[in-house]
Amino acid sequence: MIAFLLAQTIAITGGTVYPVSGPKIENATVLIRDGKIAAVGSNVAVPAGATRIDAAGKWVTPGLIDGAGQMGLREISAVQNTNESTLRGNEVAASFNVLEGINPASTLIAVNRIEGVTSTLAVPNGSLIWGQAVFIDLDGPTIEAMRVKSPAAMVADLSEGSKDAGGGSRAGVAQRLRRVLDDAREYASRRADYRRRQIQDLSASAADLEALQPVLRGELPLLVVANRRSDIQTALRIAKEFKLKLILAGAAEGWMIPGEIAAAGVPVLVEPMDNIPSFDALGIRYENAPLLAKGGVKVALMETATENTRDLRQQAGNAVASGMTWDQALRAVTLTPAEIFGVADRYGSLDAGKVANVVVWTGDPFDFATGVEHVFIRGRDIPLRSRQTELLERYRTLPPKY
Amino acid sequence: MRHLSGSVALMVLVAACASAGARTTTASTPQSGAAAAAAAGQDTAAGIGPQYPSTYQRHPNPPVLIRNATIMTAAGREIQGGSILFKDGRIVSVGTSVEAPSDAVVVDATGKWVTPGVIDTHSHIGVYAAPGTFAESDGNEATRPVTAEVWAEHSFWPQDPQIPLAIAGGVTTIQALPGSANLIGGRSAVLKLVPARSVQEMKFPGAHYGLKMACGENPKRVYGQRGGPSTRMGNMAGYREAFIGAQAYRRKWDKWNKDHQGDPPERNLRNESLAEVLRGNIYVQNHCYRADEMMEMLDLAHEFGFKIRSFHHAVEAYKIADVLAREGTASSIWSDWWGFKEEAMDGIYENGALLQQAGARVVIHSDDASGIQRLNQEAAKAMYHGRRAGIPITRDQAVRWFTANPAWVLGLDSLVGTLEPGKMADVVIWSADPLSVYARAIQVYNDGWLVYDRNDPAHQPKTDFSLGQP
Q1: Domain that includes residue B352, residue range
Q2: Which residues are CB-contacts of B254 (< 8 A; sequence separation ≥ 6)?
Q3: Predicted local confidence at residue B51, as pLDDT
Q4: Which domains occur in chain A, in start order?
Q5: Does A139 touch chain B (CB under 8 A)?
Q6: Which residues of A touch B160 (CB under 8 A)?
């Protein structure tokens, strides 16, 4: 059975294809074989025996990618028993990888993938260093089947949210983060001394300091939550000092300093519909994503409400309404997040050889009038069913069909 | 980034807030030109006379003619190439051939859309103001489970920087509600969303107060370790006890109002609000998620002889759409919020469409300072998902979900909510079809006053708080 599925060939024909890596192609075919994209173009031969999906009049895009949220880690936010994203009692939780907390049976997965989101980051939560985020596909019976990349990023917080970890001061937060990074370096160069206890006390456990090594080597990105302009600048400063590969998340006041962010080559994750001022970001505004993009910053969009990850579409549409180009916005929910999380060799565009995460839409994916016709994840034609569609069918006519 | 940075708890708390507000009209309330038409004129509780009256005054403006727009009236018509003329705060005419008086400001709206001003039945802006510190946390008097005596207007901060954001989303009227910590959270404030120095200047003349009530998880969570209620049955007993007390209070006052024998009865603010609910002058606005609990609350209303004007949040309203249609109780809902708490697990996109199909009244509400800016988008989501499920929702119905229907929930449907001659000139010009994600409000008129113009900084009022800030 499995072998049969893997061998399946699917041809999505006649649609307007948005590969993202290149311009749109009218009346094109996307050929899927063994869970991968085999070919994309207007002159693709459809092999005999292929399952044909007629996409005439439809739009075909890569599956959307949300670089935020706690998919699989959070069933009901208000019910603590169903939350797996926070390692309590550890402000430097660098060795905490959320992967094994993910529940592949979470009802949130089906609810959101049938609206076109096929991959997400699953992000820990915490205070200063939250832990390791992983990149997952929204399909699969096991964690192993869902995993794309683990870890995909180390997550830290330089916003007002982590002040307690810095003794109540942003300066304290920055200094504590530096001390942890310094200690991680020292630990790496003196492991033997550490084991013989011939070293002064370090500011984190050996496991956490060990987990920071790929970050110090610049292999694993450090995703930093920062919103106030000065916090963004602190993140840029620390990343420069330690030669880190930085990703900014939130970056609400980033629009004030696109030049600095672009010059540092740092990509940014932005939530476009977020514009409510707080002391963490009094300058927050709708135009953040478009202004960053215009300033040359690599921008990916996100929806942080896990249960409504599907509203990533609406986030992107609103980014366009605020001045982003449509092409920029599509890239910001597909190829750009794939690049940011180091999976662009397999994800984010419709190109031969990539994983077949593909969505067939009735029209513009960002518009409310548009529906989803097919969602493919790793080449599997996902049934468009969820707990919510079952509720609809039960209560469509009253009294309900129990 | 609020969610990523761990303020999920905050979001849940806000989501959990639903309030009910009541409006009281008094004959001596100053009336704007348009509002005078309403002149509902019920007296406040028990002959006590006007209390904390509105000081709202219509801003003087020249007449305005908007031409060549697609006008969605929320009264059944979508007019292509339409014009709308308003003067002295009132809509004069709507149609395809409207003459402008010589002193009118003429706005060419070719390629643009026009709708009535957006109305939100469920907002906490002003009472949970930005920047969101404890200093502005004035929405829940969470000191005891029944606080019918508190009034949201006494918490409302007119300099909340969230107000201009909502105006820029096309919102012209809100019901600001107490939160949902309490079984009975207090009176709502029904407000014109205009720049003002005091809440009194924003109070909608002629409006009835609402009374915020809350079912389910929130009251029992807040009071479970503080003397109760700690269960849903405790919640129910709490409402009943409160209204039993109010019945006695009402009898005493009704008798005294009739015969004026001896000293008036002693006033009790809590019972004053509840007695006004029993008299039908204050509308019950009931935060309630689950279908079974809404059925319990309808029983409660029957027991005491009042109406529940609207359930709020009501994520399971579709399960009892037939009952809600029969009862005449509206449902103020989100398009797609679900799952953030257990009583919200069964939310579905088609809630609004199924209610509409059953003949029940649908309102898209926000309960959220961000969502209030995009109620048109939320209505669009609910409409299109309904259509995809085979439920033929019309565009006019979807526009009513954020205009005419919320006006009814606030008892203001004779004054606002549609674009018809005689209605208050609460009008929004949109850059595109308001049921598209790409539309933005480009001009917002409140009672004829241009309170927002996307293309003119002179008409983008800032609150005091925002001056000198980044």
Answers
A1: 11-60+116-417
A2: B46
A3: 86
A4: 64-347 (3.20.20.140)
A5: no
A6: none
